[in-house]
Amino acid sequence: MESRVIAVGCSYTYGYALDDSWYHHKGRTYGKRQPSNTAWPNLVAKQLDRSCVNLSWPGGGPKEHAHRFLTWNDLKSSDIVLCLWSFHPRYVIIENDNKITNLMPHRSDKFDKIYYKRYYDDFDSEIMLYHYREYVDLKCKSLGSVVYHMYINPKDLTMSKPNWCCAEWTEVTPLEVIKHKHPYAIDNGHPGQLAHNEFADEVYKIITR
Predict the structure, then answer these.
(1) Which terminus has fewer CB within 10 Å in the chain: N or C?
(2) Which domains occur in the chain, in start order?
(3) Model-level pTM?
(4) Are 109 and 50 spatial neighbours (Cβ–Cβ below 8 Å)?
(5) What pLDDT was estimated at residue 32?
(6) For every residue of 153-208, which 3-state class applies, written as one string?
């Protein structure tokens, strides 16, 4: 059975704006629409002598992470699953597997503004992060896969882990923090290559300790 690393997350896991990936700038799109081969999940996989399946997608939030992973039907017991959960205020409307509309609090689109003004609630958003995380954890455990849950920036989390939540957070230096120690990616906003390298090394040490 092939040994693999399965990655779940947003643009930070995708490797957005690294040299071999894609990014937006002033209304134009550059690069190839594929996860970067030098993003942190691939680097961890190489250190573990495994292949990498990167299920992440730029702009995604916890609901989209869970949906992409739960509807992916190729998980094996030998897989190591690495979830870097993104900012929990991000939301998505899933019309079908091929049509997912992202909502973000900082965007000026009319639909985004309406949702965050009228319907968004911090408690609801954060508690649902734990729901989504639990769903992913249960799928992994049901198949015997090892899973690590990390959060992009833990200082955004205000509540303690609910009593009903069995999944634990993996203690790791947040990629959002590491990002500011190094030069940014091509778009001058996302983690650059050195940040991905450092984060990958730390995750690898956690897995192999």
Answers:
(1) C
(2) 4-208 (3.40.50.1110)
(3) 0.93
(4) no
(5) 65
(6) CHHHCCCCCCCCCCCCECCCCCHHHHHCCCCCCCCCCCCCHHHHHHHHHHHHHHHH
